[in-house]
């Protein structure tokens, strides 16, 4: 039987000095548990990537998983690629994440070849892409650089290709934002996080993860040139869009 992933207790004790959140070895060691207990709808988003892989991946193209972490999305895509000549490119700027992704890919039996790159996704050249995923990654890119990244992705995509963009979002209405934040925190409590853990994690990540509204994302996708952009999934303040070139 597979071993139980280590429990995320990084913020369980009072910390005298909170530093900005980074995807280092410490975070990587508990990441599967952290994201499962922190991101409502995460499992659904990952599972449904198979649908997009089945519909959009074309022969002799490239598929990109930008911000691949430990490879959950990479493997979900890989297992549903049915076309010949497809290469899957998985990118993350954390070596600790890439090391674990490499192990997970090696243990997987799906045939599509996977290239792993430890680099900033903004430096990844997008070429001949039939499908690109950005799962909870754009939110960590500085605001002023997000337009360029989406434009670069668009330019490297084939006609009819798709981009799946999953993000934590900000509600335009302050009352709605307060509601979904409360629900998100309750989701965490029900998954075993204490109020101290929730508070300290929020403080550590607030200068690193900068959310935008759905309208902001849709406007950016439209400005980049995408002909269609839909919000296909939302759970509280987490949403996923699919944009088609």
Structure, explained:
The chain starts with about 25 loop residues before the first helix and ends with a strand. The protein is globular. The longest helix is centred in the last third of the chain and has 17 residues, at about 175-190. The chain has 8 helices and 7 strands. A 7-stranded mixed sheet has the order 3-2-1-4-5-7-6, sandwiched between helices. With about 240 residues, it is α/β, with parallel strands linked by helices. The model has no long low-confidence stretch (mean pLDDT about 95). It has a domain at about 40-170 and about 210-245: Vaccinia Virus protein VP39 (Rossmann fold, 3-Layer(aba) Sandwich). It has helices at about 25-40, 40-55, 70-80, 95-105, 145-155, 175-190, 195-205, 215-225; strands at about 60-65, 85-90, 115-120, 130-135, 155-170, 230-235, 240-245. Helix 2 (about 40-55) packs parallel to helix 3 and helix 5 packs across helix 8 (about 215-225).
Break the fold down into its secondary structure elements and pairings.
Blueprint: H1 25-38, H2 42-56, E1 62-66, H3 72-78, E2 87-92, H4 95-107, E3 114-118, E4 129-135, H5 143-155, E5 157-168, H6 174-190, H7 195-205, H8 214-224, E6 228-235, E7 238-244
Arithmetic mean pLDDT = 95
Distance between the termini: 42 Å
Strand content: 15-25%
Sheet/helix structural class: alpha/beta
Shape: globular
Tell me briefly what this model is.
The protein has a domain at 42-170 and 211-244: 3-Layer(aba) Sandwich (Rossmann fold), CATH 3.40.50.150. The chain is 41% helix and 20% strand.
